[in-house]
C-alpha cells in the first residue's frame, strides 16, 4: 500500500473532505498539522510549491489538494495510485 502524507489545518473543510475520502478507502496516512507549526508549514510549501492546505503526497509524489485527489478518484486512478487491489 502507498505511503500517504497530508498537510492540514484544524478548521479546513477541504482537509476534512480529503481525509474523509482516504478514510472511506481505509487508507492510513500521516497527517501533519501546520496551523501552529511554522517549520512544518515551510517544509510543506517547499515540497509542494503551494501555500494552501491540504497538500497531499502519495509515495512522495505531490498530488495537489482536495480537488486533485477527487479528480483522481473520478478518473478511476486513485485506487491504483494508493496501491489498492480492485477485486
From TrEMBL:
Q: Which InterPro entries match?
A: GLR_AS, Glutaredoxin, Glutaredoxin_subgr, GRX_bact, Thioredoxin-like_sf
Report which superkingdom the organism of origin falls in: Bacteria
What are the record keywords, sorted?
Answer: Cytoplasm, Disulfide bond, Electron transport, Redox-active center, Transport
List residues of the Glutaredoxin domain: 4-63
Annotated Gene Ontology cellular components are: cytoplasm
> Any stretches that span the bilayer, and where are they?
none
Give GO terms for biological process: cell redox homeostasis; cellular response to oxidative stress
Function description: Has a glutathione-disulfide oxidoreductase activity in the presence of NADPH and glutathione reductase. Reduces low molecular weight disulfides and proteins.
Q: What name does this protein carry?
A: Glutaredoxin
Amino acid at each position: 500500500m502507498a505511503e500517504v502524507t497530508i498537510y492540514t489545518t484544524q478548521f479546513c473543510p477541504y482537509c476534512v473532505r480529503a481525509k474523509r475520502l482516504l478514510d472511506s478507502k481505509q487508507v492510513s496516512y500521516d497527517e501533519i498539522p501546520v496551523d501552529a507549526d511554522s517549520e512544518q508549514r515551510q517544509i510543506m510549501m517547499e515540497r509542494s510549491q503551494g501555500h494552501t492546505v491540504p497538500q497531499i503526497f502519495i509515495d512522495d509524489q505531490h498530488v495537489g489538494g482536495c480537488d486533485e485527489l477527487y479528480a483522481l478518484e473520478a478518473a478511476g486512478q486513485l485506487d491504483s495510485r494508493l496501491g489498492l487491489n480492485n477485486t
